[in-house]
């Protein structure tokens, strides 16, 4: 099948008039598309899906009109417009009348519903077009390289707001209590960036950022939750204008919170749509993590206004660069906005998550050929966003931030209003830096995986060697025969009590680095920007662990993260890893604790029930000092990160550590919160709720359910919703599972709730049985992208019996998740089950002893 449209007819301008009927869940539309015909054609091919086309006409420059007809090819999501005589080369105006549906699948032109304070239901119509769903709203050339100008008119009831990509040019009565809202012409851009939103929405007054008005939109009653996004949006918009050296390409920016939204947010030029949790937040009652999420997403989408919207990938194989770059710049902007958040240290968590997938045999290159547009849907994953951003960060640090930015500016100037390929960015960066960029980058972009760099003392120096890191390395000859990567290495060695720093490009299998004297230890990823793991020879790891408190947080983070990864891969015994964590009892950095407690959670999923009390004792020993130091009450001088760490530690102690005193204290704090919601630090409240779910019964469940239903902020709603999935009592687990299909939990959230229940030690069994029974309903009800992620939960079904059952299930049902997603989940499960088989005995013996 040929998926690409012919280029004999090319659109340059769409005049679109749409009349949505929110109650009937339908819309009618008419469009006039200005096209250039380059060779005589009697058939014009364009994309359309779930549309009926009832009128077709073509008019040439002289005004001659030819009536045509349309035939739809549903499988290919195309329409063929046929004319009795050929359209001759030149400019034509195609007029098409059509009708469509406002679907409930959160793609194309769709319906979102919400209840107001009085319980009355309201409907919004919104769009989500990326990658290939603009064709569900209007017939179009739905490929990113067919850039055109859009002149949109929405005909809607008087009382509703209508928003599109540009400012309103005029508003006129349209009869029947309706108004016709005409929007200004857009810049030349791709179809997937067009947006319409219609409903009872309210906007903040505009904040002027230079010449650009910036507003936040929400359903009525939520404007009190917009200030943080406005502040972050205003900062980011100005920041990016300076960074890119190009003015904002639109005429206004609207940030819109949509109650039902499948992704996190969507970078429609000038009309950026968000799920509510990613935009609306109450600064006074949100945790650091919740605020960071909003800042990240707002900055990310605004970064796209240039990188993605002004310059766009020529085809979907380039989507990785689009997303990787926005993720990278989101970090740069948020880091500039809130230095104290140490965003690049926290990014270590994301980098490690990408390495978790990229260390699999079933990983994929960041960029690969995409033929069918659907193939790119599986590209919206950790490898695209997090690995992509990581390798860009590595390149930026290697070239220098100024040189890198100059290359980016050059790329934007050369390709604005047009399309580009990945190689165009390398060319621009090469021109700015005078370095051979493709040679360095190709191994990171066009090959799956990443290297494990091994460090060994070697007389008065160190020996560095590289091979591919694989969790199942033994299955693949341990990656030894893989071609070497070109690795920008930042080496730091402790020599005679002082530090020696060296930079080099490791482009062969191994090299020796000379030092002034024999090193005590050496860190092979100083600064932590490299996308590789480091394996230390046992003797060196011991020495390094003793001095680890002296190195910066991101390097401590990597020491733990790398050690745990090589443990999962079978190169380090699990008990040796657990011994190593004993060196971190006085750790003060939140991210280092994130990787430590993440590894504890993994171990908890692997061990047998009988080992669990010993493991809880172990966890209490590891986090006890930090818990005692941090206490429960915020100190006036505490940074946001310290406050968040306090919450994280309390949560671990009260759940994994099963600490009774902490659980009692959590009850007391919750009572305080019920009395006065401002009396408890928002950074520990999520921990308190999680602990109460862990120890609670029906009374707590009923309370949380009520609070979920009446939540005042999106964050509060999420906390209580996910807490409903964290109870241990079987009857309560069942209740929550049932709610994922009852319509009570939004389809944008239900798959993620199920994922978390599949991962919970006490809920995973029933959750697995439940999804096996209801997966078809889920596939129908949930948005595709979220449904795909739900299945990630099966990676926590760690036992040989479950593993067999999971494999049998997917094989016999023929479930396809796109790309290599399913293979990756199954391999992650295999890694965990092997770990269990290899380590369970030793872990049981180790955890039966008093922790040291
Ligand atoms: Zn993005």
- Structural class by secondary-structure content: alpha+beta
Estimate the global geometry from the Cα principal axes. Answer: globular
Q: What portion of residues belong to β-strands? A: 15-25%
* Nearest-integer average pLDDT: 95
Number of helices, where a helix is a run of at least 4 consecutive DSSP H or I residues: 24
Number of strands: 29
Radius of gyration of CA atoms, rounded to a whole number? 28 Å
Poorly predicted segments: none
Bound molecule kinds, no repeats: zinc ion
**Strand order across the largest sheet:** 3-6-5-4-7-2-1-10-13-12
Cα end-to-end separation: 63 Å
The major beta sheet can be summarized as: 10 strands, mixed
The helix fraction, in percent, is 40-55%
Describe the fold and architecture.
The chain is α+β, with helices and mostly antiparallel strands and 852 residues long. The strands form seven sheets. The protein has a ten-stranded mixed beta sheet, with no helix packed on it. Strands 15, 16, 17, 18, 19 and 20 form a six-stranded mixed beta sheet that branches. A four-stranded mixed beta sheet has the order 27-24-23-29. A hairpin with a 4-residue loop joins strand 19 and strand 20 (271-275). Helix 4 crosses helix 5 and helix 10 runs antiparallel to helix 11. The longest helix has 28 residues, at 821-848. It is globular and about 90 Å long. The termini are far apart. Zinc ion is lined by residues 267, 300, 304, 323, 326.
